[in-house]
Design brief:
This protein is α/β, with parallel strands linked by helices. It has 8 helices and 13 strands. The chain has a 5-stranded parallel sheet with strand order 6-5-7-8-9, with helices on both faces. Strand 1 and strand 2 form a beta hairpin. Helix 3 crosses helix 4. The longest helix has 17 residues. The radius of gyration is 19 Å and the shape is globular. The C terminus is likely disordered.
């Protein structure tokens, strides 16, 4: 069977990967008919994997259950500290398990999660945080020290892996996890070197993942738009 015939069979009407026209704000576009509609569906479905291994990051090993226990604890702490649905929650730190925990916690709390390119220098990071209007920032100690002089005091700061001597601002990530009980704008560097915010809807991120297995858990928060760009305002978050 040719590649073309195989694709046609897999995406035909009634098939698991059926592709059909899906209504969007820009008209009908092709997409997976059986894909989840939101990231929430994908995240909540992952809870069902329980004690299976999930995260391997350096010496850190987390099962799905351990990961969600930490994410739920952090979410409870953030909500207790005033994080509400629609707040902009920026993340600027190296890739690790804590990045994913922070994203999941803030997203499930209904926040607009804003991943920022952590390779930026102090001025670039400050611009990104200010430009997106984030009221919260999760970062590692290296970025916290870079930003402590320029970051307005009204920004709520959560710091991972605080060094000695580290920044004196914000709360330790580990303290946030232990003090509580149990969505995405992206930053993209243009050719000019200045970051611009991108408009993303959960629906299209969910489409990238394809259909979920039958019986998937899909309960949870269903906030739809988790960030947008008003191109008439120079690409700023509106």
């Amino acid at each position: 069977m040719s590649m073309k015939a195989t694709i046609q069979e897999l995406t035909a009407e009634g098939a698991f990967f059926e592709v059909r026209d899906i209504p969007t704000a820009r008209g009908d576009l092709p997409g997976y008919a059986h894909a989840p509609q939101t990231l929430t569906e994908i995240i909540q479905n992952a809870r069902g994997h329980g004690d299976l291994g999930f995260i391997v990051s350096g010496d850190t090993r987390l099962t799905f259950a351990e990961f969600f226990a930490r994410a739920d604890s952090l979410r409870a702490y953030l909500e207790g500290q005033g994080l509400t649905a629609g707040d902009r929650f920026a993340i600027a730190m190296r890739n690790n398990a804590e990045w994913l925990i922070g994203f999941t916690a803030a997203f499930l709390a209904g926040a607009t999660v804003v991943p920022i390119n952590s390779w930026g220098q102090a001025g670039e990071l400050t611009f990104a945080v200010e430009d997106c209007g984030a009221s919260w920032l999760l970062c590692d100690d290296q970025r916290a020290k870079m930003l402590q002089e320029s970051l307005p005091t009204e920004r709520r700061l959560v710091v991972y892996d605080r060094a000695e001597p580290g920044t004196e601002r914000g709360i330790d990530f580990s303290d946030a996890l232990s003090s509580a009980t149990p969505a995405e704008v992206e930053s993209s560097a243009a050719r000019s070197g200045v970051s611009h915010s991108l408009y993303l809807r959960q629906h299209w991120d969910a489409q990238r993942c394809g259909p979920l297995p039958t019986g998937a858990v899909t309960s949870g928060i269903q906030h739809d738009v988790y960030g947008h760009v008003d191109h008439d305002r120079g690409g700023r978050i509106a």
